[in-house]
Amino acid sequence: MFKRSLRQKIVITAVMILIIVIGALPVNVMAATPPPTLGVKISPIGNPTWRPVDFHLFSAPVGTAESGYAEFGETMLALLPPPNHVANPFLGVGPGAPHQPPYDSELAAGVTALGFHEGVQFRTAEFSNGMGVWVVWMNIPAPGITGSSPDFVSGPIIPNSLFPIHDEGNDYHNGAFFSFMGSFDVPALDQIGFNVDGHSHFPVFFADNADFGPPGANLNGSYQYQFTIVDATGNGWRIEAHFTVTP
Fold first, then answer.
1. Cα(149)–Cα(196) distance, rounded to whole angstroms?
2. What is the band of 96 on the pLDDT scale with cuts at 50, 70, 90?
3. 128 FRET partner, CA 20 to 30 A, in 60, 109, 146, 211?
4. Candidate from 98-112, 149-163, 202-216, 229-243 with smallest mean pLDDT
5. What is the predicted pLDDT for the residue at 26?
């Protein structure tokens, strides 16, 4: 129960501050979207009209029970800082200064600026004692529809009609269940006070570490994060992130 309550606390925090509504990626840029980063695999569920891009797998602070895992939120905000992204009472972080596309490298810029270790091999110190292995990505129209967003009057969007978009994930260690990584629903913007037609794009952040696995587990070995992200019509994506932990 103790472990589960900690994870539920993280999930509740994620619901508040995970969803960030920012710019748009035009269709002509979509055609040149690079494949997922090393260690990440994606496959469609049905026929989604939006797509996850800008994947990153890295170690960064998540915090501890003593800190209330406040560092998880701080790391998220640092990855997408002002002025383009600002605090929002409903989203935690929401639209800031309007800015032009493309937006398929904002998370990459954040990871680089913060100097986080990105890759597929991590040490136990990067997966325990306040540190965790993160996977993050951005969701963009592909092709979406044309409409308004917080960043523009008319452009590619994921329309409000496709929301809520449901995200959830699990972590497997050496093929066995390790932890539930959380679930949350990304809301339609017109349900939370924005007079726009939809999201131009939004990011997702997940992280895990030893705190949420079996007590006393040997952390060494292979890990597989498994996620589903599905819109209100049942279309979406399966995402896997693979990495190893060594002493």
1. 5
2. confident
3. 109
4. 98-112
5. 34
Rounded Cα distance, 86 and 164, in Å: 22
Largest Cα separation within the chain, whole Å, is 53
Dihedral (Cα; 107, 112, 116, 117), 10-degree rounding: 110
Q: Tell me the CATH number at 88.
A: 2.60.40.2550
Distances in whole angstroms, Cα of residue 121 to Cα of each of 49, 160, 182, 224: 33, 38, 23, 12
Total residue count of the chain as it appears in this document: 247
Domain count, the chain: 1
**What whole-number distance in Å separates Cα of residue 177 and Cα of residue 71?**
25
pLDDT at 100: 82
* 13 touches 73 (CB < 8 A): yes
Asked whether the bond before 203 is cis by omega within 30 degrees of 0, the reply is no
Q: Where are the beta strands (DSSP E) in 96-164?
A: 117-118, 121-123, 131-141, 145-149, 152-159
pLDDT above 90: residue 85: no
pTM (predicted TM-score) = 0.86
Cβ 78 vs Cβ 6: under 8 Å: no
Q: Which two tokens stand for residue 32?
A: 């040149």
